[in-house]
Structure formats: structure tokens, C-alpha cells
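Chapter summary example.
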Amino acid sequence: MNTPPSPLGAERTDGSSVRIGALVPLTRPGWVQAGQHLLAGLELAVREVNDAGGIVGRPLELLVRDTAADPQRAAAAVDELARLGVGALAGEYHSVVARAAAARADALGLPFLCSSAVLDALTEQPTEWVARLAPPQSRGWQIYADFLLGAGHSRIAVATESSVYWASGTRILRNYLAPRGGTVVELDMSALAPTAVCDELVDNHATALLLLVGHPEPAVSIVKSVRRDQRLAEILIGAPAGQPEFADWAALLGDDSTAIPFLRYLPERLSPRGARVETALGEQLAEAPSFVAFEGYDTVAVLAEVLRSHGMDRARTAGSWPRVAVEGTRGQIQFSRTPGVSVWQWAWAPVQVVDRDPAEPDRFRILHTG
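The structure predicted for these 370 residues follows.
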């Protein structure tokens, strides 16, 4: 691993705080509620680290930067945080934004533990500097495709927008479903109004529609249109990217928010540590924490252990990814090389397909696990 020459990579001995940079979408067009949950997890873990004595007696400090789902803004934040001397980067929810941040972190020799973004190719070339907690998109979306097939759906329509992330998801679904007798029909939402989606679904004899689009719009309008069309009373609406996870989905759609399966990265049962963190996060957020909040907490838990063991030297931090073994809220976290994935990957993050229960919209039903 080639370490770019930088005095900021050296061990700090002045007794000041140990700094971690945090990239979080906190304003639109970023998914603000996801960002709030991610930040809540990061902040809770930092408080707990400091309550337990910090990093070898030094307080852990989080320098938060709002990415607003803007890749260029994220890359600029990475540059700024590197100049400020952070020992590592944490966070980010949006895959396209995380990809820009990972590219800058790799170029600068700054360790980056990505919390939530799932795009398989988070960097163009394999890198030693970046590790990730969320499962790669190919793993999660193949599990979702298995769920669709098991539920009897082989003719799938995807309402999609232009994005590397959505295009990758469509490709994963098509490549996985085709040899198993499934087909994927793309509906280009740059050319279709939400109401026109209904006619396309009927014409293509689709039994499932997946929302590969932004939240809240056009996702909310598509759901409302489909749910009001009597011809589509039996169609399954799905959202593999997880739009129904957050409370604002239920608030915007009411009864229409339920029975829309999505991917969630939680185990069937939380560990004792996970249950304790769940309670603390619920108090902090004043609502049930999403899996994204747990990802934020686990990110800091891993980085704190690495920084205690290896100090603030960036090269030593990045070199430690394959030796990490940290008990997180959702299982033991260890990183390895996964085929087709360019970063150090927690290979066995839990994956569920869940939906909101029509009888009790605040309750999630586990439909499938992988």
C-alpha cells in the first residue's frame, strides 16, 4: 500500500481529541431521515466511547459534514476533513455519493469506513483504504430476487430513473432472474407519468412492480396511482432500496404504505448489545431506529477499536481492516475480500426482506431472510 506523503497522517501527541470525519445527508435532495438516523447512531457510539474513557484517554470527536446527496460536495468534504487531520472517515448513505467520497479517500490515503452505501464497485479499482459495513448490492438484491421467485413472481416491472445505482440494481435483478425463468421490464420514469405506469403494467402482464426511483417522489405518486387502479389489485409493489423503512413513508402514504417488501439489514434477533443500543437510539430519535442507525453505531464501534489498537496513523488504520474482529449490534464484524467488490467488505451482514403489516403499519413483518 502506497502512503501519500502527508504530515497529517502522523500520530498526534498533543493530547487533543481524536477526530473522525462523518459524511451524512442532512438536507434535500438527500434522504434526510436516513441521514438523521445514520448520524444518531454515529453520535450515540461516540458518546459511549467517551463515557468509557475515549481513545486511550483522549476524547473522540465527530466532525460532521452534510453531503446533501451531492457527490461533488462529498468529495470536497473529504478534502477538507483530510486537511483538518481526521484519522478516518465514517458514514454516507447514498451509494453514488459514497463512491465519490471513496475515490477521494483512496487518492488521499485516508481510511474510510462506509456505513450504508451498497454499490458493489464503490471504487473503480480495488483499494486498501476503504471498508464497508452494508452488504454489497449484488448480495442483497439477489436475496430480494429469491423472495420474488418464491412468492410466485417471475414477470417483474421496474420503474426506474437514471442513476448508476438504479442501473446496477436492474442489471443484478435481470442477470439473476433470467436463468431462473424470470423477466425484467424497465419503465423509464423520465418518460412516464405515474398514472401512465399503470397502463404499462397491464400491457406487460407484470405481477410485480419494483420502485427503483427517488423518495418521496416519484415513489409516493407511483404507489398511489397503482393502488387506486382496480386492474392492478393483485400486483405486488416492492422497494428493494428500502424506502418504506422510515416513518415518513408511512406518514405520506397511510394505508398505502403497507405490504411493500423492502431490504433491511438487521438480524431476526438483536444481541444484548444490539437491544441496549436499540433502546438508546429510540430515546434519542423519539421513534423506532432504522437499520441505518445501527449501521452508524457499528461504524464508530469498529473505528474506535481500530484507533485504540493502532493510533492515528492512517496507513496502520487501513492496514488493520483484515484483522478487525468487533462485536457490533448485529453480529461480529470482520472484513474480507469479496469477489466483484473493490473494498474490504463485512461479508455476512444480516439481510432481511420485510414489509409494513397492513393490520399494524408501525410493525414490520419478516418475509424472507438471506
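To summarize the output: Residues 32-51 form the longest helix (20 residues).
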